[in-house]
Fold this protein.
Amino acid sequence: MNRDQVYEKLEAVFQDVFDDDSIRLSDRTTANDIEDWDSLNHITLISAIEDEFHMSFTMGETSTMKDVGEMVDILCERAQEKPKKKRRFF
Amino acid sequence: MSVISYPFDGQELMKRRRSIKRKLKEDGTARLPKKIAVLGGSTTHDIIEMMDLFLLDQGIEAEFYESEYNRFFQDAMFGNEELDSFHPDIIFIHTSLRNITVPFPRMTDSAEEIEARLEEQYGLFEAIWENISAKYQCPVIQNNFELPAWRLLGNRDAYDIHGRTHFVQALNQKFYEYASTHPGFYIHDIQFLSASYGLEQWSQPQYWYMYKYALCIDAIPEFAFNLVNIIKSIFGKNKKVLALDLDNTLWGGVVGDDGVEGIAIGHENAQAEAYTEFQSYIKAHKDLGVLLTVCSKNEEENALAGLNHPDTTLRPDDFTMITANWENKDRNIMNQAQMLDLLPESFVFVDDNPAERTIVEQNVPGIAAPEMEGVENYISILDRNGYFEVTSFSKEDLKRTELYKENMKRAVQKAAFSDYGEYLDSLEMTAYIRDFDKVAMQRITQLTNKSNQFNVTTKRYTLEEMEQTAADPDSIRLYGRLIDKFGDNGIVSVVIGEKDGEALNIVLWLMSCRVLKRDMELAMLDELAAKASEAGLKKLKGWYYPTAKNNMVRGLYESFGFSKVEEKEDGSALWELDLAGYQNKNTHINVTREVFE
């Protein structure tokens, strides 16, 4: 998966988790830039990203990633196509 | 409306929970407001988020109290102002292996030392339960413990008293003993849930190290769903009927095409085995008081032939109603609901055909129509949905199928009488109408929480609140049991009045729809009037509060001869009756205040 593809999917995950379609991401984006991105929602976010990209962050990565750029670096390396799930709600 | 049934995509639900919740809240459903206190021994944030979602889906709008991280013990034992003023309707104690505070047994410990430690740990929990049930008088839900994911003694861990596995099982056993002797106390079985989910996955420790979660994040939706099943059941949201398709649902093949000898049922092959096991699972629901009906597109003759197949487990007798015709299934279900005096939303529609499920789901509001795909999955799909989660159980449940069948016989006999009064007399009815007593409390509470149609105020009570009411000298309570020549209808009516100056204010008046038009409500009124007069009261008064379901009692007080004092814009109305010169109204039922033996 290339960087643009990762960004496109990642943005959609952020928009879903924070229920805000206006969210745009860049390498420099951090938790300070998104209003509801606190430590509790961070857990949901990480888990949704892992599910979307069909990969897991290690414990070390989760605690040291500084911005979206670092996250995207890891995703470019390890992301996989998510198998299609049939269930949607609404 | 309900959009979520098992199996669901938990990750998708977690990710999109905000928008799903927003849409559920906007769908216009009237929801039951409830206050839920979550006292956690580990992080509870996402658990509460997901509980909120599933509760909304079940028609409950929850407000939460969340204890500070790992403050469950302090909150439960010493309380705090916030929790006290919150007045919870239910308390959930979320503890896990991480909250076992005594040292686990070591190989060097003696049996006595281990027993003492077990008692010490158990004692801490029992103290919590005793304290909060005395203080908050509400139902309590407590997790049991999941099994340890690693075993120092290997397989021996399970049976050696020094094993952690053994210790945890012994502790769980003590929890169960408490649960089985304390109504209003419920175990949330995470031992089953973690095993079913996969203990290795469930217990991945990074979620504890990083976030202080006692289970992996991905398991949270399953956890919350399972927990909400207990809560919605306590608040009267269980289903009541399984409406079953036949071809490819209860047996393999199409009886009309393949003939009776051609359908797969019995033990001849894998398909037949699977359908047989499913039939046994369905049949066992009768013991829980769940009604079974057939809803099949078939010639009736063929349907009955299939149900009389020599190897079938379910027989025509097991069903309260058998509807086999070529009508649309949504209409058949609406008809069944009407015949049985039940709400269509209390049905679970079980059909392998997605097109039939869609039609029924679209046209029968609130019905559940789970995705039945692959006979080998049928049991687990129904089972995990928890439609009939058993939180209370009364003797009535054991024989509900019989009760409804007797009702069908009464309907047949009714047709033979020209005069309705004559028909009522022919039923030879006796009503046992009394103040609440201990034996009846479970059933009184159960009936109160599930009656929607013949219910003037739709006030709900937990068992604890009902017990308080029963002990309140300023209230007058009645429950009624109706017997006739066809059998015992069980406890069918509950009335509660509160003394208010010279009047008795009726705060609850409900009756089971299975005894509609039998004059039972008149017998209850006579008894209430008598009790009120004995207590020196001069008047009866009561509010009618309209809901989406109780239109049938809009004119109840009027029919009793009450006069209207006040009516509000929303249709609520206050009614009043002067007791001076009250004349008994019931003429067809013989009434006694004795205990029914």
